[in-house]
Amino acid sequence: MTIAPVQRTASLGSSAWTDARLIMALEEVVEKELNRHLKVAKDWMPHEFIPWSQGRDFDGVLGGEAWSVEQSKVTPLGRVSLVVNLLTEDNLPSYHHEIATMFGREGAWGTWVHRWTAEEGRHGIAIRDFLLATRAVDPNELERARMSHMSEGFESDNAHSMLHSVAYVAFQELATRISHRNTGHHAGDPLCDQLLAKIANDENLHMVFYRNLLKAALEIAPDQAMRAIADVVTNFRMPGHGIPGFERAAAQIAIGGVYNLRIHHDDVLQPVLRHLKVMEVSGLGPDGLRAQDELGVFLGGLDAQATKFDERQAALLARRAARQAAR
Ligand SMILES: [Fe+2]
Ligand SMILES: [Fe+2]
Questions:
Q1: What does pTM read for this prediction?
Q2: Which of 7, 75, 160, 186 has the fewest CB atoms lying closer than 10 Å?
Q3: Any idea what DSSP says for residue 26?
Q4: Distance, CA 176 to ligand 1 centroid (Å)?
């Protein structure tokens, strides 16, 4: 694959890579990755995954039965994680705005932006249908949280730079995949697990798209791409960080083993970084080398922090188990 080789000349320097030029230079890669995505992404029908027979009217307008917690077999951890995952999916209009503004709505980039939006739209629809049909969460609380979360909107930390945006979504799609998959495993309902596995599969294909794009960016603008990766990895925040009560939910999700520092380091950061061979990229200028060093130091520190978290988690779970046994 040849990407505008003339732009790699030293005389242009990394500062010559404006967002507009990068978007043009990567168009060919976007087209190739879009075609690959369309070939491997299998269409699926969200309604087939919802056990509609478990559904019934709620109280209020139709005078049905009010929600109460014992109506669902979903675990407390599953409930918290499902709400965070769904509210994260719900802010799709903001995400669409971010990427349509950054990547444009023309050509292969535009086709990707719209296709991605359509696939993501399916996730929110399917999870909400599932939660309401199975009475897994309080529907009033869920709706109030959706209104509050979407009214705030989402603003990317990376809107200043196209490469930072690509680097962020490469990690974020994998983070979302892992979060859905682990939520399914802890949900206590095999049908929920089945739905979330399907959604996690979509997120994985999104990650592959952006990861491959980032790989091409590392080839054509290595210094700037390395800086973007280092900045994104060292400042990573989940897109749902603005959800009401997020800190408390995130703590429960961490202790419960759905998403925590260890998982973030081992299952999200490392697989992408290893695939990109980020620590082995050679031929970097001073800026790129500095970014690569920062990344190495940060990852070492994160691994150590994750080990401390593992120990705290094990101790807490042991205390919980002992309390349970004493009852
Ligand atoms: Fe999604
Ligand atoms: Fe996704």
A1: 0.93
A2: 160
A3: T
A4: 7
